[in-house]
Predict the 3D structure of the following.
Amino acid sequence: MLIIITAALAPSIALLCFFYLKDEFENEPLTTVARCFIFGCLLVFPVMFIQFAFDEEGLFHSAAATAFIQIAVIEEFFKWFVVFFAVYHHVHFNERYDGIVYASAVALGFATVENIFYLISSGVEYAFLRALLPVSSHALFGVVMGYYLGKAKFNKIRKKRFIFFSFLFPASFHGIYNYILLTQNYWTYSVIPFMIFLWVYALRKVKHANRMQAKDYTHNKAG
């Protein structure tokens, strides 16, 4: 069991450290980041209950509905809900990049517990593949979510639009990812290019958040 927990936890911690250290200005308090990670871990249980209930009722009969609604919308909404109501208004959410750190922490907490359950049922030999795909994808969805929440925090004019984007884009990307896995027999030919796209897209958001934060610092000093 210890091997499974370690195999499930290691990629999440590595990815969280990666995005945490990408902050070029002020690193967030580790206690707050850890709290977000734990919140993400706990989210797995209500999400699993709701998804199980949908399975029992047989509400979704198509791959598209399953991928986009039963999986993507439900999971990303719960993650978004936690980030928005637990840390968006927090005193430590004081930079554009902060949303990326906190949202990726919640996402990776969720991915870790989900990964533990999968490895228990299927075997630790899947740990490497899980790290490359589901765990990484959850992290990237979190980065996108946090990027737009950071924009919303510091843009009063387009605040509502960016808050909507902070849910819409991660849920859409998550739905596409799951739809590929559910419908393609040779899904590696589609999911690998999609993962490359996600990494490029997310890293651009990381770079842009830091660039905009630099402009904010320059503006504040000038003011």
Summary: The chain has one domain: 2-222. Residues 188-222 form the longest helix (35 residues). Helices lie at 2-21, 30-57, 63-87, 98-122, 127-153, 159-183, 188-222.
